[in-house]
Amino acid sequence: MKRIQFNNYGDASKMYLGEYELAQLKPNDVQVRVKAAAVNPLDWKQRRGDLKLFMNKKFPKGIGNDFSGIVEAIGSNVQNIKVGDEVFGTMDVKHPGAFAEKLITNSKYVTKKPINISHADASCLPIAAAVAWAALFIKGNVTQNSRVLINGCMGAVGSIAVQLAKEKGAWIAGTCSKKDIEEARKNGVNEVYEFTENNYWKKTQPFDVVFDTAGLMQQRIGFSMLKSNGKFIDINPTPMSMLKGLFIAKYKFTFATAAMKHLSDFANLAEKGILKAKIGKETNISKAIEILTEIENGNGAKGRTVIIF
């Protein structure tokens, strides 16, 4: 079997298409034949070694996290999924490897795919939806009465966050590039600001939540837009910002793992047409390394990139 993998941490040149063998199936695992796998920034952060403290020590390591496919085998303890089910899900952060013909992951990271959405669409949901859900509802406590600013409202996470906040009934402001402003409005963002607009934050009314999906907002600016009990939510925490989260009540950070138990909720919303990622490019595994390198260098297509098997 083939997958994209790497033998040591480093830049994009470390990736290669190689042969691998699946690990032994554990009682809570599922084995999936991959039909589609979506690209996330997490993928190259893992390969570069940014998260090596959280990963296993064995090489070669696979790359890729989010996927959709068909179940080929299940562990002895798995009850909610059966062989032949179409599913989508993600990998344990310690063991990436979704850019592969087949994979094994814990069943808690998998749920059944709605029959009315494609494998490509389903593969785009897990991490982006989990991060957005965790930020808005677990850390931000967003309700229909909330005012929310989403910094990067047209990105992978930001666009999903807009859909989730809109479904909840919140009032939404967002920032994006000038070329995306009209599309952001069509997507339901009530008030849109261009990233480079000077002092846009001085024009706004206070927010209950400022969600920085892009990781580029100065915290002092984010804090200045909050109500007295508002929250600034970061998904790109550094060791220093994580320390701030312990001592500053307004500052919160979160990870996708905080909301992975809501995969079935994502499936229900996708089935109803409420939750949908925008796919910009589809490719196959033989061309994927070239495309992955382009995306990592900031030259990717607008929208999500999906590897189709």
From TrEMBL:
Residues 10-307 form the Enoyl reductase (ER) domain. It comes from the Bacteria. CDD domains: MDR_like_2. InterPro entries: ADH-like_C, ADH-like_N, ER, GroES-like_sf, NAD(P)-bd_dom_sf, YIM1/Zinc_Alcohol_DH_Fams. PANTHER family: ALCOHOL DEHYDROGENASE RELATED, RETICULON-4-INTERACTING PROTEIN 1, MITOCHONDRIAL. This is Alcohol dehydrogenase.
